[in-house]
Amino acid sequence: MDQNRDGFIDKEDLKDTYASLGKTNVKDEELDAMLKEASGPINFTMFLNMFGEKLSGTDAEETILNAFKMLDSDGKGSINKDYIRRLLMSQADRMTAEEVDQMFQFSTIDAAGNLDYKALSYVLTHGEEKE
């Protein structure tokens, strides 16, 4: 979504995203309303929090956990961060190294380099880590 790759999602990024989906007649008022939903500039972390809020009403945490579990063949509750990095940067809507690094900033990663996807799923759906 960050079409200009400046680390933030702004009105032009939203317009470009809609255009890439075939919708070119989005009104500025609609885009402004979307941007006003954020409590500040929309970086990757803010976007994930907003996305998680939009998923409320569904069992988003369980859905996200199930997606991660598909990658966790040993059932350990964690996935190697380098493996996740490679997947996120090479599959589907490829993320940049900076976007992956932003995700890792609020992820729990142990000394062996394994990402705790249960904690990450919680952050994605609730906005902050449990105490």
UniProtKB/TrEMBL annotation:
The keyword Calcium applies. InterPro entries: EF-hand-dom_pair, EF_Hand_1_Ca_BS, EF_hand_dom, Myosin_RLC. It comes from the Eukaryota. Residues 1-24, 59-94 form the EF-hand domain. SMART domains: EFh (SM00054). The keyword Repeat applies. This is Myosin light chain 5 isoform X2. It comes from Balaenoptera acutorostrata.
